[in-house]
Amino acid sequence: MAGIWFPYATPHLVTLTTSANKACQPYHPRMPVFIPLNSIRLWLNGDISELTTLLLPDNTLPLKIQAC
Fold this sequence. Notes:
Strand order of the largest sheet: 1-2
Shape: globular
């Protein structure tokens, strides 16, 4: 999952979300951004113009959705 850490006096973590993919749409309009392992370097060190594709919903994710 993608997030942004703010190490202030009171630390904060923000989870980045995107539009829900087809598997998640029936449950919620948003879902967490998942960064593929082979894109970690790009996420951490890439040019901002290259990162936008990582923020799009991915319909190829093998998600397992179950009730809590």
